[in-house]
Specification:
- By secondary structure, this protein is α/β, with parallel strands linked by helices.
- The protein has two domains: 11-174, Rossmann fold; 179-385, Dehydroquinate synthase-like, alpha domain, CATH 1.20.1090.
- Helix content is 46%, strand content 11%.
- A six-stranded parallel beta sheet has the order 1-8-5-4-2-3, with helices on both faces. Strands 6-7 form a two-stranded antiparallel sheet.
- Helix 8 runs parallel beside helix 12, helix 9 (207-223) crosses helix 13 and helix 11 (263-275) crosses helix 12.
- 49% of the residues are buried.
- It binds 5,6-dihydroxy-NADP and zinc ion.
- Zinc ion (ZN) binds at residues 140, 190, 194, 265, 279.
């Protein structure tokens, strides 16, 4: 196992009807900015629950954060923060709203020349407003991590700081019942790939992390398709298991002390930046290709994945790996997400532009060995076409 320091500061309130606890988590004298997206929270009753919970607080609202939050939109919140002397942000929504709130929190106290540099130049965040979150879409883990991804003119860039990690998060599985099938699929697949990127590297004998990761993968494989089936769609136990899996997938726990490979995400971000494909649907296209192209480097973990996650038996390692990749693709198909370029109307001709973008964004040494250079990324993209 590698050395690590682990600290996750987010207090989680999990379960039905927990939104009422929001009021007691935010300091009584705080001036709160309630941040949300396109309005789903007004249709499913979450907004009303939050408003009730904030009845003893002074608050104003900022809405309109779009999926894959845009820098221009987020910067509009700054005037409101100044005008109302906001000192606490409450994000209510999916990963885009929580990520957006994180950038707003950092930009509000940024003292440099241009807040975009937090992303473009990876300038460290020195200060940020505190954040609380009410999660409505289990997927990203953003509710209890310090990561955020922001888009500006086709450039989708991540930043990370412990200062923007939410202080608390409310996870009520009931609020996920209003999600469309597409968003349920996206969430399950995003969480699945988060686990894979902290698991499918090389063996460092981190038994706890490996077995936690395998448990999360198996839970998502078991419960994900059920959340799409008419008979089990409304089952809150299924929703609860998916929701907690998604949080645990990216709250730092399974990634502590193990090598990580975020190449699928970094290449996927370019597909979203250039072609506006949903985040998770880029991952389901890229991950199988990464598994194929990096098969030799990842051999030991691929065999472990085949045996322990999918129960593949037999003597021949090559066959086990083939089977594991095939089953992963089948799972993605069951979750109704694409696995090839052609599924999203892209082809070989789009690869040069994506490679150019990866280069522009400094994504030239990805993977657990930093050896996914632009040539390897090209191979991955070509494999995703075939
Ligand atoms: O905007 P509203 O009206 O709320 O609608 C949203 C949005 O249209 C809707 N939605 C959310 N909760 C709902 C709901 N509709 C009905 N009922 C509910 N309960 O779903 C749509 C998609 O929401 P979004 O927040 O964009 O989805 P997701 O949670 O998948 O977030 C994706 C973003 O997170 C980033 C992605 O890159 C992408 O920008 N990520 C953030 C990460 C992190 N912070 O750690 C890691 C991830 O890998 C990812 O990169
Ligand atoms: Zn993701």
């Amino acid at each position: 196992m590698l050395n690590f320091s682990f600290h996750n500061p987010t207090k989680i309130h999990f379960g039905e009807d927990q939104i009422k606890l929001v009021g007691s988590e935010i300091p009584a004298d705080a001036k709160v900015l309630l941040i949300y997206g396109g309005g789903s929270i007004k249709k499913n009753g979450v907004y009303d629950q939050v408003v009730t919970a904030l009845s003893d607080h002074t608050w104003v609202e900022f809405s309109g954060i779009e999926p894959n939050p845009r820098y221009e939109t987020l910067m509009k919140a700054q005037a409101l923060i100044k005008e109302h002397q906001i000192d606490y942000l409450l994000a209510v929504g999916g990963g885009s709203v929580v990520d957006g709130a994180k950038f707003i929190a950092a930009a509000a106290l940024y003292e440099g020349e241009d807040a975009w540099n937090i992303l473009a130049k990876q300038e460290p965040v020195e200060k940020a407003l505190p954040i609380g979150a009410v999660l409505t879409l289990p997927a990203t883990g953003s509710e209890s991590n310090g990561n955020s991804v922001v888009t500006r003119e086709g450039n989708k860039l991540p930043f990370s700081s412990p200062l923007v990690c939410p202080q608390f998060a409310v996870l009520d599985p009931k609020v996920t019942l209003s999600l469309s099938d597409r968003q349920i699929s996206n969430g399950v697949v995003d969480a699945f790939v988060h686990v894979m990127e902290q698991y499918l590297t090389y063996n460092v004998n981190a038994k706890v992390q490996d077995r936690f990761a395998e448990g999360l993968l198996q839970t998502l494989i078991e419960e994900g398709p059920k959340a799409l089936r008419t008979e089990t769609k409304e089952d809150l136990t299924i929703r609860a298991n998916i929701m907690w899996s998604a949080t645990m997938a990216l709250n730092g726990l399974i990634g502590a002390g193990v090598p990580q490979d975020w190449s699928t995400h970094m290449i996927g971000h370019e597909l979203t930046g250039s072609f506006n494909i949903d985040h998770a649907r880029t991952l389901s296209i890229i991950l199988p290709a990464v598994m194929k192209v990096k098969r030799d480097d990842k051999r030991e973990k691929l065999v472990q994945y085949a045996e322990r996650v999918w129960g593949v038996t037999g003597e021949d390692e090559e066959q086990k790996i083939d089977k594991a990749i095939e089953l992963t693709e089948e799972f993605f198909k069951d979750m109704k997400v694409p696995t090839r370029f052609s599924d999203v109307e892209l082809n070989h001709q789009h690869i040069p532009n994506l490679i150019e973008k990866l280069e522009q964004h400094g994504m030239v040494a990805l993977g657990e060995h930093n050896d996914i250079n632009l040539d390897v990324s090209k191979k991955i993209l070509e494999t995703a076409c075939s």
